[in-house]
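Hi everyone,

Forwarding the result from last night's run.
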Amino acid sequence: MYQPYPTSGQGQMPEPQRPPAPNSVQTAVKLMYAGAGLSLIELILDLVSIGSVKTAIHKRFPNYTAAQLHTAEVSYVVFAVIASVIAIGLWIWMARANAAGHNWARITGTVFFALNTLFFLLSVARPHASIGLVLSLLVWLVGLGAVIMLWRKESAPFFSPRAQ
């Protein structure tokens, strides 16, 4: 026979509802998913252009032995793949967390954008393929758009703590 667990007699208090996500937050989340997609395209282009990495390293360091050249090439590719996978994961994580209305995610996403800005400026200073720079600029612009949307006035109530 089933006996419910005794309670204090008071009914359960319903959890306050979060207001629906405003258009600005929905747009920011879509931009974050677009950022993940662009980062995936960057990863694919990095993998397609692996052959040019060896040439670029050899041009920059002509005294490298074949073993050193191979090690530098493998290190570059491994770093690029790991960094791209992390970037894609961060875009998706921030999109989901911001869609759920977590204020910490809005702040964290803004910090990630600031770091991306720094890395973008550093990448402009070094030699690069023009298509890579264009994609990096697009990723940066998507991040800028997402941050602007997250901090718009109409977004604030969605991220404010729910009253008990």
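The radius of gyration is 23 Å.

Cheers,
N.
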